[in-house]
Amino acid sequence: MTARKYLMGLCLGAIAVLGCAAGSLAEEATAVQDQIVLKSGSKILGTVTGSRDGVVTIDTDFAGTLNIDLDKIASLQTSNPVIIQLADQTVIPEQPLRIQDDVLVIDTATSPEQAYALSELLLVNPEPWELGQGYKWTGLASLAVSAQRGNTDTDELDSTIESIWRSKQDRYTLRYTTENDKTNGDTTVEKWYGQGKYDYFFDGPLYGGIQVSAEHDKFTDLDLRYLVGPYIGRQFYEKPIFTLSGELGASYVNEDFVEAQDDDYAAGNWAINASSNYLGGDSRLYFDHRGILSLEDTADYILYTTFGLAFPLLWSLEAAAEVQLDYDAGAVDGVDKLDQTYRFRVGYTW
Q: What pLDDT shows up at residue 28?
């Protein structure tokens, strides 16, 4: 009987110890999570993975990844250190992120506690290239294909390849597009365009660059048009909700025609690029425009405009519906000045 009581006591004791240990582990698991308290009073636990453009990203167990505006946060505390980059480009490594009463609080081992306005918080856990380490490589490769069979057989194939290497100091851009159409086996459209650009970023939103481009359009009598010249650019806005940049430059243009007389001239050129994720769902509205104006004959100008809506598919695939309008005021006789293309394309982004 005594032995039985002794064994029961050991079992109860073991259960109690295990219960306490489990409770302690649960408390510890909760304690190591980052915590965000919203101004509405809601509390969010998870792992803060970054912050940019005034939005904090946190991974949670209950709702996946959440994006929370900084102005909705009453307090924030991370349990592990992060890398903080301020608006003046100061980088503070291995520092827990703490926000209290609408201010960013930083307390390092080598300096006393300091408070910063939330507008001074530029990035949390920036990418290596944003810290001056190497380049970020992004790009797109897409195709638009259509075929029609019946009274008239038509085949269309459009392709686009774009590759951008961006560092904190400069940017390289390569683009190449093609358009080939056939009707009843006869080629009706055969054109391509290639462009290479180099941008150097000054302090602030200004940058300077140089570009070279070449294009061919068989059925507008254009054998080859190439352009080379410098430009100055400005990034007016750079947030996911709206990005806008503009460029203005001068260039030398040389045109070789199949039948018409060849030409070359000095020109002014410009470009406008805008995009927005206003529609949500990782979709992207975009508008790209560039122009060339002859400085010898202002009635001779060329406008290229593309606008559309892109949206993600599976993995890194992207689909887009877009309109391309090319207007050549100096087109040779017998050729339409306006060329319109409507396409639906699917591509891979990286």
A: 45
pLDDT at 286: 98
Q: Are 96 and 77 within 8 A, CB to CB?
A: yes
Question: Residues near 190 by Cβ (< 8 Å), separated by ≥ 6?
Answer: 179, 180, 181, 216, 217, 218, 219
Helix (H, G, I), strand (E, B) or coil at 122: strand
Query: Nearest CA to 312 among 320, 321, 304?
Result: 320
Burial of 167 (0-12, 13-18, 19+ CB in 10 A): middle
Q: Count the alpha carbons within 13 Å of 218 in the hemisphere toward its beta carbon.
A: 10
Please report the pLDDT score of residue 167 as a whole number: 95
pLDDT the model gives residue 238 = 87
CA pair distance 37, 203, nearest whole angstrom: 36
In CATH terms, the fold of domain 136-349 is: Porin (2.40.160)
Residue type, 318: E
Residue spans per domain, the chain: 32-126, 136-349
Burial of 160 (0-12, 13-18, 19+ CB in 10 A): buried
What pLDDT does residue 8 have?
55
Contact 264, 254 (CB under 8 A): yes
User: What does the pLDDT read at residue 1?
Assistant: 47
Residue 144: phi and psi, rounded to 5, are -130, 115
Q: Count of CB atoms within 10 A of residue 19's CB?
A: 10
Give the largest Cα separation in the chain, rounded.
Answer: 116
Residues of the chain with pLDDT under 50: 1, 6-7, 10-11, 17, 20-30
Q: Is 330 helix (H, G, I), strand (E, B) or coil?
A: coil
Buried b (16+ CB within 10 A) or exposed e, 190-209: ebebbbebebebeeeeebeb
- Give the integer Cα–Cα distance in Å for 140 and 346: 10
Distance CA(301)–CA(227), nearest Å, equals 13
pLDDT in tens, 112-126: 788 899 889 999 999
